[in-house]
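Technical note accompanying the year-one report. For the benefit of new consortium partners, we illustrate the data format agreed upon in the data management plan: each record pairs a sequence with a structure-token string. No post-processing was applied to the example shown here.
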Amino acid sequence: MRLLFRAKIEIIGVNPYVLVGAQQVERLRAGWRRPMPVKVQINGAPKPPWRINMMPMGDGNFYLYLAGVVRRASGTAVGDEVEVAVAFDSDYRGGPDELPEWFANALEADAAASANWAALSPSRQKEVVRYLLNLKLDSARERNLARAMHMLGGGAGRFMGRDWQGGQ
């Protein structure tokens, strides 16, 4: 099912969003209370629709945060009245994305790092993999792979804005 409605883009802190009401959410997925994977378009853009999770407010309403990509593609800003198209993303799969081959090979070669990787929560694994997949330069990839392997191998330090110790 695809939900179409008009709403005003609002902002919380630095995060632009559109409020999706409880009745609208029920039409998308009845009884859903956790982050909901959806595909969204604002004023018909972007094409293809942007994939994101709507975030529950706790009262049945959801925040639909609008990434800069979506706002730029739709030519919209905070305060604009927009047409929202949102559909449940049935293709969404939880857990981490597929490991890049160069990261999988490094884990395979280091038993301690591999064991610590397996002990990480799926959400932390996903966070690390997506971070690594977004690296464009070979030098950045090599530098961050070395840091990731150091932290996963049990070293202490900061990586991805977090303190790591003992592989966690």
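Partners are asked to follow this layout when depositing records. The longest helix spans residues 138-152.
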